[in-house]
Automatic annotation (TrEMBL):
PANTHER family: OS01G0651000 PROTEIN, ZINC FINGER FYVE DOMAIN CONTAINING PROTEIN. Gene3D superfamilies: SGNH hydrolase (3.40.50.1110). The lineage of its organism: Eukaryota, Viridiplantae, Streptophyta, Embryophyta, Tracheophyta. Coiled coil: none annotated. Belongs to the 'GDSL' lipolytic enzyme family. Transmembrane segments: none annotated. GO terms for molecular function: hydrolase activity, acting on ester bonds. Signal peptide: none annotated. This is GDSL esterase/lipase. The keyword tRNA-binding does not apply. Keywords: Glycoprotein, Hydrolase, Signal.
Amino acid sequence: MESLIRRHGGRRAVSPSSSAAAASFILLLCAVVLLNTHVALCGCYKRIFSFGDSIIDTGNFVYLTGNGPSQFKELPYGMTYFNRPSGRICDGRVLVDFYAQALNLSLLPPTIPEEGSGQFENGANFAVLASTALGPDYFKTKYNFSLPVPYCLDSQLASFKKVLGRIAPGVDATKSLLGESLIVMGEIGGNDYNFWFTARQPRETARQYLPDVIGRIGAAVQEVINLGAKTVLVPGNFPFGCAPEYLQGFQSSNTSDYDATGCIAWFNDFSRQHNQALVQEVARLRSQNPGVTLIYADYYGAALEFFKNPKNYGISDPLLECCGGDGPYHTGMTCNKTAKVWGSPANFASWDGVHMTEKAYSIIADGAEQQQPLSDMGSFSHQKHSISVYLVLVSAVLLLNSTLGLCGCYKRIFSFGDSIIDSGNFVHIAGDHPCPFKEPPFGMTYFKHPSGRISDGRVVIDFYAQALQLPFVPPSLPEKDRGQFPHGANFAVLASTALPPEYFRRRNHTVPMPFSLATQLEWFKQTLQRIAPGDAARRALLGESLILMGEIGGNDYNFWFLDHKPREVAYQFIPDVVASISSTVQELIGLGARTIMIPGNFPTGCVPAYLSAYRSGNPADYDEFRCLRWFNAFSAAHNQALLNEVSRLKAQHPGVRLIYADYFGAALQLFRINDPLLACCGGHGPYHTGATCDRTATVWGDPGSFANWDGVHMTEKAYHVIADGVLNGPFADPPLLHSC
């Protein structure tokens, strides 16, 4: 059986929008609920129940195969996130995983292994690979066409009702449970067409049964509403014509058969026809069920954005599969343990010719937050047209991510650090003096003008604030003596060090700026005395705040190394740098802080300024990423010492949440961005470091295609990738959005 469905059992490659993070795509959901309010603000959704096919199957099909062989039970499936096969038809997570994480829920278990016994406290996934909307009998009776598996929407709904009868017996209990749950209806229906098309049946016949596919999805939605569901997400179909398996199977020498993205035009037109019919059905259901939130998710539009602008997402060619064989689309063999993995899955949209990579799923889930914000979208419950999820990404996520900002998890952010998160303090200190950070191209991407940040756009703290549904954190110094800082304040200053200047003077070394962690902490305490006078008020304020301790400490080493001082001496600094960070953390705990995030250092050996200053003709000096091996090893040594110290502090303060953020590991993801070792803004030379980034420098392209901005600092794109790894995991323990 599996040989029949291993290619077509789920779906096709897709993707679309990033630049961030966080923000987890169709998490419109909670935003919609906040607008139409069927679910209490701070509960959002307590469970997810999902139906569908291999796009979101999290293990049901693998369970059904029992002890039989299956390529999905073996690597390279699961190689990316789980580091082992997980039952998903992907290299890592699938869409429903990102939805669950953004809702601060556990990853959804497949239902079939525990259909008769599981309590499914956070919901369950009924999706099975190769499932169809219409049942096998429909195709056999009407078209004498046999489907390879018996799984369909009817069988999934029957299982759902069986589970409901056990975990919420009785009408009232069922309605109560479903009223606080999110129902994800698909994507489903794609296989009704996939099996037909790939069996080379007459294409036009599929148009004849398209209304029946839509009707079955609509009937399923109505059925879960009748059971008590109050929020149902109904995704559309992806662009079939962009899937490598279709491109290989329907190759044509006629250029008019292809659209501008290189996809097969006829199949994409068919997908659009299905989606338009589904939009109309969702609109009809809305009118019949005015007390229910029905959300149409435009997977097609999200994916097409990805195919049109692959370089924006670090994808070389979105029409190639990652795991397969030779051939123009890498479809020369089935993805299994003997297949070729053509590179990092993060550089591909399609995993195995039919299913997507985790990268593609995460981009769909993250969306493109720079697009139209949710607040501009109007009332979702009355929209008659498709809502492209990627347009509403960030605002949606922010409204929905756990119980955070809106629900009292963190009401403020107070931050310490250097230029990585400085949001305007240094520019304020510069006063009327000339400063490149006051002029374009700084700020060109998001703000469209210089913002005081040392980047083309937002920095990591901005993504954290947005994900917590808080305003951007203002620099503290402009309002040092009068600001009330209702949502927090940023004390970070460019060029700051963890250790004070006199520490280095004793070693015959001068740091260029007087600002250290002790200085910032003193500013913070002065501010606290003004905005929360008294011990009780201070503790109450800090108890509901998030403290970001850096990144700080990098400059203690940077100024030494870039002054070409003896490298090994810097190892002597590490215990003192870590001790300075630790003592500040302990002082904050003493003041009343309850949640502190402590980031590690970045891989300094990958920074263009280092690569230029320490160029070597010895290949052994470079690692597999073409970064300087010695400096990355040094950063790792700092990080290990810091992690050990965080562990010690956790043991001493069991009532305090201390979160170590692995910026080093998160930054290594950036090697999927074209050439991450080139500065976007600078001059000539192998790393574009031939000139300082200022208004006269060369901007070598769209900052979204670069990891590094000016030779030292990162682009908004890079900060977004790092922030997403901290917000949603796996580069923070626990992930920041799961820390409440």
